[in-house]
Design brief:
The protein contains eight helices and four strands; from the N terminus they run αβαβαααααββα. It has 196 residues and is mainly alpha-helical. The radius of gyration is 18 Å and the shape is globular.
Length: 196
């Protein structure tokens, strides 16, 4: 597939990275704490795809939800975080788009917190890189994306996750896209210079 820095495409990764980024900013501001207990809503527990099977009314700490999102790419955990930070998924989506605008991400639009298929949900390689640059400024974020194994228990089952962390894979993919864009751009520039 040919990648261009301005091509819009559907991506799950920036949604989760941005959700985690905004959660960290809420932690840094003192709005929430890692040990806070979050109660899963019906909306959060109903998400499909990759998940930790949260049940409506189940409680889990912000810390566990962050790690479930980062290590396991859990859609239900990601949604629960967004709802806890902003009060509802809709309000959090608005915050995601506002933060994206502040970062200069002109070709990104979020319609949910987890990046599941949805109309008008898109981003570009350039905007992916912008999210990455901002996220990597956070020390806790750096620590979490290096997590390769994580265990936690809920009232229904015990999870032990051991594999390549979701976000590490995301960043590797983002870097690959960025390299492709740079190489193609330099090749085009070189060709144009020859013609001159």
């Amino acid at each position: 597939r040919k990648f261009d820095k301005k091509d819009r495409s559907f991506e799950q990764k920036p949604s989760k990275v941005m959700t985690i980024l905004l959660t960290f900013e809420a932690l840094e501001s003192g709005q929430i704490k890692l040990e806070d207990r979050v109660t899963a809503s019906r909306n959060a527990s109903s998400k499909g795809g990759s998940q930790i099977w949260l049940k409506e009314g189940e409680q889990m700490s912000v810390d566990d939800l962050l790690k479930a999102t980062a290590v396991y790419s859990a859609n239900d955990a990601c949604t629960a975080l967004g709802e806890y930070v902003s009060g509802s998924e809709e309000a959090f989506v608005a915050a995601l788009n506002q933060r994206a605008a502040e970062l200069g991400m002109k070709n990104t639009n979020f319609v949910n917190t987890n990046g599941l298929d949805a109309e008008n949900h898109y981003t570009t390689a350039r905007d992916l890189a912008q999210i990455t640059i901002e996220a990597l400024k956070n020390e806790i974020f750096l620590k979490i994306i290096q997590t390769s194994e994580y265990s936690f228990e809920n009232i229904y089952q015990c999870f032990r996750i051991h594999f390549i962390p979701f976000l590490s894979f995301c960043f590797a993919r983002i870097i690959c896209k960025a390299v492709i864009i740079i190489v193609r751009s330099r090749a085009v520039l070189k060709e144009k210079t020859k013609k001159l």
